Task: inverse folding
């Protein structure tokens, strides 16, 4: 439910409405807008008796949000959310490019890749220090050492760091190094983890689970938002289907669907979606044309020697070429890279 306030409503009137909502045992979320303030109501199990709120000074009307995701809902927050990280933005006209290896493997290789993706135009560096692997015998990441290497790469290049946090207990540690927490597909419904990152003042890149519906993705975002963290970036990374020629199937329709349903930025990961470097450029171009707010792309200087996801990693030259291609597509739809 959303209480729409008059455009000239005073702070006292807004506080009064919030207090009445709290007295009713519910949570109030004031949402400042360009024109007026709205106050979201969450925490109700049944229909809220709106009589007490309707008559309060400054209230224009009350909108019932029928979807189960409230704070993530565009009805709650008509303007796009723009996530800001160290002077860079995700969700605005300029498309955010996040690139780097699947995993941080060594200082030397990460620094080399970081310089190359920066030169090509990326603003964010990705790389996992804690890796969710299907096999416990596969490379699990360098842990804190990997985080230190990422921080060094940020110092050298100015790129902002996106890295996965796999477990609730690691959130404080990862937050000391990361600029954006990544929640991986396998963790999308790790609710205690979602609540924990929701309490940290750091943006969260939330990947869609491989068998999750768009509504489930939005409900997971809702967990983070409802803990007080408004900076959530959604990421479509392919879903499991019967198709075998690609690792997953990129659900490109997530982009316009999310754009309609939610104010949160939506980016595409063509690397995990395809599982094959040959398809990464085509899917990236499609993502930009569809209106994605960013791309998350795996890049490696020596894909055959990569410790994870080499098959889907672009060489830096190919990544650079792709950046040129998407610039033109972005310009054609009034955006820029
Ligand atoms: C990754 O980004 O390297 C990763 C593990 O992705 P996903 O969670 O989408 O599989
Ligand atoms: Mn990967």
Result:
């Amino acid at each position: 439910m959303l209480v729409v306030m008059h455009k000239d409503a005073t702070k006292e009137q807004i506080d009064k409405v919030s207090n009445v909502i709290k007295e009713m045992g519910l949570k109030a979320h004031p949402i400042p807008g360009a024109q007026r303030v709205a106050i979201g109501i969450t925490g109700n199990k049944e229909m809220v008796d709106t009589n007490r709120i309707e008559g309060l000074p400054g209230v224009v009307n009350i909108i019932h949000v029928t979807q189960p995701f409230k704070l993530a809902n565009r009805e709650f927050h008509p303007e796009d959310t723009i996530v800001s990280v160290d002077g860079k933005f995700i969700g605005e006209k300029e498309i955010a490019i996040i690139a780097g290896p699947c995993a941080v493997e060594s200082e030397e290789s990460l620094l080399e890749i970081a310089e190359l993706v920066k030169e090509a135009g990326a603003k964010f560096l990705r790389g996992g220090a804690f890796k969710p692997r299907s096999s416990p015998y596969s490379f699990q990441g360098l842990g804190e050492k990997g985080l230190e290497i990422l921080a060094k790469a940020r110092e050298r290049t100015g790129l902002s760091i996106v890295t996965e946090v796999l477990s609730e207990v690691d959130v404080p540690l990862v937050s000391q190094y990361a600029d954006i927490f990544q929640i991986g597909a396998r963790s999308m419904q790790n609710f205690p983890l979602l609540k924990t990152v929701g309490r940290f003042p750091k943006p969260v890149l939330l990947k869609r689970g491989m068998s999750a519906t768009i509504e489930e993705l939005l409900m997971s975002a809702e967990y983070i938002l409802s803990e007080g963290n408004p900076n959530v970036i959604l990421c479509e990374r392919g879903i499991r289907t019967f198709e075998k020629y690609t690792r997953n199937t990129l659900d490109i329709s997530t982009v316009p669907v999310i754009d309609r349903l939610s104010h949160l930025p939506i980016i595409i990961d063509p690397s995990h979606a395809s599982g094959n470097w040959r398809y990464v450029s085509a899917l990236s171009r499609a993502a930009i044309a569809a209106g994605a707010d960013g791309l998350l792309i795996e890049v490696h200087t020596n894909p055959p020697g990569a410790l994870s996801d080499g098959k889907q990693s672009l060489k830096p030259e190919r990544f650079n070429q792709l950046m040129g291609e998407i610039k033109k597509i972005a310009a054609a739809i009034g955006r820029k890279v």
Summary: The chain has two domains: 2-63, 83-332.
